Amino acid sequence: MIFLRSFVAPLLFFGAVSAIFMAASTPPAILGPYSASTNHADDIEGTPDTRPATWGKAGYNVHTFQFHPPPGYRVRILRVYGDLSVFVRNPDRSKCAGVLWGLQSTAPEGSVRMSPAADNTFLYIQDATCGDARRAPVDFDTHVGGLLQADNVLYSKVAVYLNDGGSVHLEPTMTIQYAFERQ
């Protein structure tokens, strides 16, 4: 009986230590949440828009944001809040322009489940200006569509459309809440 106790007790201790060590060495499924703020600015006039049922000029710019998760993790954008500020360079109240801002992953454009749509776009807002300064606030819960591709790249796209005036200044300012998810 003494032999059995002296043999079993170290085995139980070794098993408990092994379980603790294994639990400690398994990376967590989610790291974060984290938060970062950023912005970018663009002046866009566009080129003549020849698509059906449009007029004026259209154009866009894309900004790339690279996240740096630990190996084996991908980025999920959880929430984005901030605003899109718009200013017309030389306002003429008789000239108008539409503006938009979107956040996208690098997944292919288009949609496999809906048409027309973009599965890779999880934030998309539009506004318009006829020379007046505009501010379009945003506060979007993006965790459903916000899983970035394995490259962990976020695109921020700004555009003008139906622009029958001059250059439009667009400036999205955003705070991004995100987490790293184990793949």
Please outline the helices and strands:
Blueprint: H1 2-25, E1 30-39, E2 42-44, E3 47-48, E4 57-66, E5 73-88, E6 97-104, E7 121-129, E8 134-141, E9 153-163, E10 168-182
Antiparallel strand pairs: 1-10, 2-10, 3-4, 4-9, 5-8, 5-10, 6-7, 6-9
Characterization of the model:
- This protein is mainly beta and 183 residues long.
- The protein has a single domain, classed as Jelly Rolls (Sandwich), CATH 2.60.120.
- Helices cover 13% and strands 50% of the residues.
- It is built from 1 helix and 10 strands; from the N terminus they run αββββββββββ.
- It is elongated, with a radius of gyration of 25 Å.
Short key terms for the protein model shown above:
single chain; 183 residues; mainly beta; Jelly Rolls; 5-stranded antiparallel beta sheet; 1 helix; 10 strands; elongated
- Main beta sheet: 5 strands, antiparallel
Secondary-structure-based class equals: mainly beta
**How would you sum up the global shape?**
elongated
Low-confidence stretches: 7-14, 16-22
Measure the end-to-end span: 49 Å
Sequence of secondary-structure elements: HEEEEEEEEEE
Number of strands: 10
Average pLDDT score: 90
CATH class: Mainly Beta
- Rg from alpha-carbon coordinates: 25 Å
